[in-house]
Amino acid sequence: MWFIYVALFILFIFILDDFLLDKRQFKLAEVFNGPKRLPLIGNVNIFLNLKPKDYYDFVKDFMEKYARTGTRMARYWAGNQLELMVDDYKLLEKIMSNPKFISKSSQYGFLHGVLGEGLLFSTDQKWFNRRRIITPTFHFKILEQFFEVFRKHNELLMEEIKEKSKNGKPINIFPIVTSSVLNALCETAMGYEMKPQDSDYLNAVREVGHIVATRFLSPWLRIEFIYNMTEGKRKQDKCAKIMHEFTTKLIEERRKLLSKSEKQNLSNLDDDDIGLKKKMCLLDVLLQSTVDNKPLSNADIQEEVDTFTFAGHDTTTNCICFTLYLISKHPEVKEKLLKEIEEVIGDGEVTFKSLNEFKYLELVIKESLRLYPPAPVISRRLYEEVDFGDFVAPANANYNLCLYTLFRNSEVFEKPNEFIPERFLKNIPPFAFVPFSAGQRNCIGQKFALINIKNNLINILRNFEVNPGNVEPTFEINLTIKCDSMLVGFKPK
Ligand code: HEM
């Protein structure tokens, strides 16, 4: 008797799956290689037991197995959600340059509860208006003011490195660089100097990334009602509350300060009137902006400020830490960098203007971003089919652009796993190396990030002998590439 129930149950699964599946999408997806789809669950089984530290190998193997022939686009199914994986630079160009691929994929929605619809996630007119408003924050005149903030936080970071390296042993640079970068970001975003008692906000920004990455790697947690019952969701809500309360309080204070100083003229206020700084910051730009002649609400501003600190801190930290790690392992590169520092500034100070002259350092940073891209996989969602000639890109699918495997393509980068900064002296095909993405939705903070990264690296290199640590770091996926412990030795000069 029981086998009749089993047979009926299996039949029910097949009927339900057939009902839920978008047949047109399924047909178009069959052009691409991928594991065989199981009814209802799709391919979520391939994620079972996948640990964050194994995610890169997983993507690499997946692309090796399924994407290396034909279109170099592979597919898997998270239930009835079609996920396409792309690591072909010619295809990437077509995607990144096509306005139909401007929306972000549904996984980004995991962060909505925390970051609202800030610039990283918003789409259509909202994204366009916000991008227009925020772009002036990255004008070089304002970046020049931010440079002072970066300089201060770099000095504090170097004091900490000195203190922690006193016993001569290699130190874990990740936590201290994270704090330094996040403090500088908060100051430039909100015009507010973080205090030790604000650590709750800083911890919440950091922890949100961990929580969302766990959800990302577990497709069953993509189902809202399952996720809502988990500990992760409770932690996420707690972080969101801390972040929102903190940012909203600062917005209200800054709003009062701005109206007190007759809109744009902040010059006759004391710096420490209420602990806020006179310098222009992202918050001021947002407070003074209008959309359709209406000012932005506190909630609008809060989502942008939180997005700015979230999008900027892990990415910049990763780049600084991985570059220091690579330099520590390659004495010949270190020597060339020291020579360049000597030639460009000698005994003088690093200035905003002199940063442009560090050409070899630029090659080193590019090579570090190639090997360890801070945003290793980015993702778009397509809402209407696009005909690419040799195939039709299906609608309502997520397109995961695998920058990590793209940047290690041996057809473009000879000896792809080796650290060779000089390779960037040769021409690289467009879109074969896009660590800040490209097209309309490229990284708005690229210049901002590079100023902070360069300033930190130059000053650390000239003040410390940088040596390799004794343990190789292991890294993992955490939205950005992530490494909890990266040991580097520092000997003050
Ligand atoms: C090394 C440092 C950085 C790297 C490698 C990086 C990389 C990226 C990438 C790949 C994207 C595209 C994301 C996507 O399509 O989903 C992006 C977007 C973005 N980044 Fe960055 N980023 C860095 C630093 C920063 C900083 C410092 C900020 C803020 C100050 C920032 C703010 C943003 C924002 C707001 C977006 C969304 C832009 C839009 O959609 O209009 N990033 N970044």
UniProtKB/TrEMBL annotation:
Binding site for heme: 443
Pfam families, per database record: p450
InterPro entries to which the protein is assigned, alphabetical: Cyt_P450, Cyt_P450_CS, Cyt_P450_E_grp-I, Cyt_P450_sf, Cytochrome_P450_Monoox
Keywords: Heme, Iron, Metal-binding, Monooxygenase, Oxidoreductase
GO MF entry, a single one: monooxygenase activity
CC cofactor: heme
Coiled-coil boundaries: none
UniProt family annotation: Belongs to the cytochrome P450 family.
PANTHER family given in the database record: CYTOCHROME P450 4AE1-RELATED, CYTOCHROME P450 FAMILY 4
Protein name: Cytochrome P450
